[in-house]
């Protein structure tokens, strides 16, 4: 297995690639997870001068036959960001290894990682389409990016992903959310077979949102609750 190092809108010097190979010791990683299939390192830069203290961002993604493990960090230079991300990855690998050892013989269902970034300001209708925020957008040119209609010049970055997910329990979803280091995790509930989301609230307090198919919508009738919001 090789380590794939790539830059997103930035060049990755050969010296940094060598540092990655030294920092991410494949032998140690494979001792903790012998089923590793790929290890990707992505480097990106933040060009906002106000973010100079964390302008370099490193994201490490480890894929194996089990859950996806991701670790990311930002710092004033890529080497410091890599060190921080590598420490997070090591801690999550040890956590997964310890849990696998203590629960040996107990089957678990794995699922692929759901999209890591969700636009915070986007407002969607019942069909998942973007709703214009005001009447001022009526005269603004519209263009398509992926499956979205974008009005004006943006800037807007759209990352669209599709994943195949196996149903899992709430306990497993919480566990996999911790492995990828996110504050939320989208999964298919093994009991209801419906999409659900677990999310972090305060400290070790978690919440869960379950989606149910509206019977009125399923029968072609308008739902009185369409367009409502969910509170945490």
UniProtKB/TrEMBL annotation:
Keyword Cell cycle: no
Primary localization: cytoplasm
Entry keyword set: Cytoplasm, Translation regulation
Record Pfam families: Ribosom_S30AE_C (PF16321), Ribosomal_S30AE (PF02482)
Record text on subunit structure and interactions: Interacts with 100S ribosomes.
Family the UniProt entry places it in: Belongs to the HPF/YfiA ribosome-associated protein family. Long HPF subfamily.
Function, as annotated: Required for dimerization of active 70S ribosomes into 100S ribosomes in stationary phase; 100S ribosomes are translationally inactive and sometimes present during exponential growth.
NCBIfam families to which the protein is assigned, alphabetical: yfiA (TIGR00741)
Protein name per Swiss-Prot or TrEMBL: Ribosome hibernation promoting factor
Provenance organism: Streptomyces chilikensis
Gene: raiA
């Amino acid at each position: 297995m090789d380590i794939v190092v790539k830059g997103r809108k930035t060049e990755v010097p050969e010296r940094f690639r060598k540092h990655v190979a030294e920092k991410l010791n494949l032998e140690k990683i494979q001792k903790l997870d012998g089923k590793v299939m790929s290890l990707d390192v992505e480097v990106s830069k933040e060009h906002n001068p106000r973010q100079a203290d964390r302008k370099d961002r490193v994201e490490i993604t480890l894929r194996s036959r089990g859950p996806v493990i991701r670790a990311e960090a930002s710092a004033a230079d890529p080497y410091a960001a890599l060190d921080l991300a590598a420490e997070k990855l090591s801690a999550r690998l040890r956590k997964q290894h310890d849990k696998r050892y203590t629960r040996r013989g107990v089957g678990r269902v794995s699922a692929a990682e759901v999209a890591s970034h969700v636009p915070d300001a986007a407002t969607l209708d019942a069909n998942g389409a973007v709703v214009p925020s005001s009447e001022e957008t009526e005269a603004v040119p519209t263009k398509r990016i992926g499956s979205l209609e974008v009005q004006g010049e943006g800037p807007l970055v759209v990352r669209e992903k599709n994943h195949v997910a196996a149903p899992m329990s709430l306990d497993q979803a919480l566990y996999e959310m911790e492995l990828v280091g996110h504050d939320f995790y989208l999964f298919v509930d093994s009991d209801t077979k419906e999409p659900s989301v677990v999310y972090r609230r305060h400290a070790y307090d978690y919440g869960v949102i379950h989606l149910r198919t509206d019977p009125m919508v399923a029968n072609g009738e308008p739902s009185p609750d369409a367009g409502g919001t969910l509170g945490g």
